[in-house]
Amino acid sequence: MTELLFDLTFWFAAPFWALMILAPTWRRTASIVASPLICLPPLLVYAVVIAPEIGPFAAALVDPELSGLRSVLGQESGAAAAWAHFVAFDLFLGRWIFQDGRARGRSPLLISPLLLLTILFAPIGVLLYLLIRLTPKPAPDRALAMEA
Questions:
Q1: Which of 113, 115, 92 is nearest to 46 (CA)?
Q2: What whole-number distance in Å separates Cα of residue 144 and Cα of residue 48?
Q3: CB atoms within 10 A of CB 93
Q4: What are the tens digits of pLDDT across the range 106-117?
Q5: Which residues contact 132 (CB under 8 A, 6 or more apart)?
Q6: Could you tell me the pTM of the whole model?
Q7: Per-residue b/e over 30-49, b at no fewer than 16 CB within 10 Å?
Q8: How far apart, in whole angstroms, are the C-alpha atoms of residue 71 and residue 5?
Q9: Which residues, 6 or more positions from 56, have their beta carbon under 8 angstroms from its beta carbon?
Q10: Measured between alpha carbons, how far is 98 from 38 in angstroms, rounded to an integer?
C-alpha cells in the first residue's frame, strides 16, 4: 500500500504543475490553482503514510538528530512520507510563485522554467524566484507604449 501511495503522490500534483507551466495564460488556470486545496491530495497521502508510524516519527522530530531522522526516513514509510511532504510543499510554493509572478506582471516565459526547477529542486527554484522578485520589473518599451 505504501508503494502505491508513493507512486500516486506526484500524479496528484502533476495536473496543477502542468497548468501553471504549460498553460499559464489559459483563463481557467489561475482560477484552478487559486485554492491552496490543490495541495490536499499529497497532504492526505502524508497523513495516511505517517499515521501508523506516528510514534517513531514524533520521537525523531521532537528531538531531531541526524541519526534518528536517517533511521525513520530510511524506512519505506519514511521515504514515502518525505516524498508526499516534498510534493505537497513544492506544489504550495510553486502555486505561490505562479500567483505572485502574475500579480507582479512577470512573463510566463520567465516563471514557467522557474516552476519546472521548483518541481525538481524547490529550494533553488524558490531562491531564484526570490532574487528575481527583488529586481524591478522591466519597463515596457516606450515606443510600444506610445503606439497604443
A1: 92
A2: 55
A3: 18
A4: 999 999 999 999
A5: 106, 110, 114
A6: 0.88
A7: eeebeeeebbebbbebbeeb
A8: 21
A9: 72
A10: 13
